[in-house]
Amino acid sequence: MQKYINANPESGKRFYQDFHAKGKIVMLNLLKFREKADYTNFSEIKPKDEIKGEEAYQVYLKKTLLELKKAGSRIIYYGKSNNFLIGPESENWDAVLVVEHESVLKFMEFAQNKDYLKNAGHRTAALEDSRLLPSTEIKDYS
């Protein structure tokens, strides 16, 4: 089964094309943590002691929060999860994170910021699998 941790160039291009003129973007993150964080490719940020994937993600969030705020973004919700009420029984997620970004450009500036990037390895070390679904608000749904 294929795992998804980072965007690929094609999905990044589609994201920009589909959302660049839409204003605020809300990102739904579905997160599956590793039992033990894997810092194989991130020795420069590896903690002294072994930690769980969920702990590594907490480190990532704490180190990322300031950069999110600088970009005008905010965490709307972060909570534990497990099985779908409606959805495939084969997919289980440990947590849900919902983040609002002012725009695609602000999100891309954030995602390419050197201060963010030096800590993004905590996210990669933490996750076994993830999904990231961008959305824009439907203002007229009556």
TrEMBL record:
Domain of life, source organism: Bacteria
SUPFAM superfamilies in alphabetical order: Dimeric alpha+beta barrel
Protein name: DUF1330 domain-containing protein
Organism: Arenibacter algicola
